[in-house]
Amino acid sequence: MSIISKDISKAVKLLNNEELVAIPTETVYGLAGNIFSEKAVNAIFTTKGRPSFNPLIVHVGSKDWLKEIVTTIPPKAKLLADAFWPGPVTLVLPKKDIIPNSITAGKPTVAVRVPNHPVTLELLNKLDFPLAAPSANPFGSISPTLPEHVENYFKKTIKMVLDGGPCKSGIESTIIGFEEGEPIIYRLGSTPLEAIETIVGSVIIKNKKESSPDAPGMLERHYAPKTKTILTDNLVKSIKEHRNKRIGLLIFNDILNDSGIDYKIVLSETNNLDEAASKLYSALHLLDKQDLDIIIAEQLPDYGLGKSINDRLLRATKI
Ligand code: TXA
Ligand code: MG
């Protein structure tokens, strides 16, 4: 029997009982549990196979929760919350004692966001605790943007996926920490860099592996299909190099000559980066099922959401 259901009251019951429920957000599905339940938080780590040094994002139903969770809110954090919540911006701020150390992997800061999905906002407003929720995929693998993706991963280990349809944005939230009040991007994501800079001026990006003390989850290999994947800015050359193999193409818009290609997914016929982001993970899930020798992914324009998509594609290629 399917574990996918639209029944919000059933989700409330399970979560009140310290069980896990996969929840829809505008970015990707999350594997959610009560932040105050040691049992639920442990289950998140074991179900995902996630190392305990990798902290979780706390999801709240409104920004009023912020003052309950963090000790200080720098003016630029407030500006970002006002501009983007509910929405795909996660703020990393000094935590209050009520936030368990297991959530933050022992760090003095906590990551928090208000997700922009009507089903999950309704759910959060029916609970009297926030939800810890990492993306609902086994550690390192492709994030889920459909309820079926989660069901395929976890039908044996969780009881329910709350059905909120396909995720609109399609890549994870942009994570922003603060050093001396100044915003630093720890992870590029669904809110483009340019949109953030419009609100708070120029920001530094520490999105790479070397930032690991700040964003311990930013391991190089991540979001990865099982099939070998490469990222290229020269499609013709890369296709030639692999011509004896079963090739899957992941491209931004269509190409003229696709002979020798076994499977092809076009992310946006109309060059629309929003559309490309929303389709990215579904495309990777699908390509990974085609028994290919290699996935050749085309680098997108390096601005706006293209920058965030390129970041995910690059991580998908690491071995
Ligand atoms: O869009 C999203 O953010 C999705 C949905 C479900 O909300 N969630 C998500 O969670 O992507 P996850 O666990 O896959 O990624 C959370 C990232 C990790 O890289 C983690 O290291 C970082 O957030 N993080 C969490 N707490 C942190 C903290 N205190 N300091 C720095 N980074 C933190
Ligand atoms: Mg993740």
TrEMBL record:
It catalyses: L-threonine + hydrogencarbonate + ATP = L-threonylcarbamoyladenylate + diphosphate + H2O. Residues 5-191 form the YrdC-like domain. Gene3D superfamilies: DHBP synthase (3.90.870.10), Threonylcarbamoyl-AMP synthase, C-terminal domain (3.40.50.11030). It is an enzyme of class 2 (transferase). InterPro entries: DHBP_synth_RibB-like_a/b_dom, Sua5-like_dom, Sua5/YwlC_C, Sua5_C, T(6)A37_SUA5, TC-AMP_synthase_SUA5. Its EC number is 2.7.7.87. It is found in: Cytoplasm. It comes from the Bacteria. Keywords: ATP-binding, Cytoplasm, Nucleotide-binding, Nucleotidyltransferase, Transferase, tRNA processing. PROSITE patterns: YRDC. SUPFAM superfamilies: YrdC/RibB. The keyword Nucleotidyltransferase applies. Required for the formation of a threonylcarbamoyl group on adenosine at position 37 (t(6)A37) in tRNAs that read codons beginning with adenine. NCBIfam families: L-threonylcarbamoyladenylate synthase. Belongs to the SUA5 family. This is Threonylcarbamoyl-AMP synthase. It comes from Winogradskyella alexanderae.
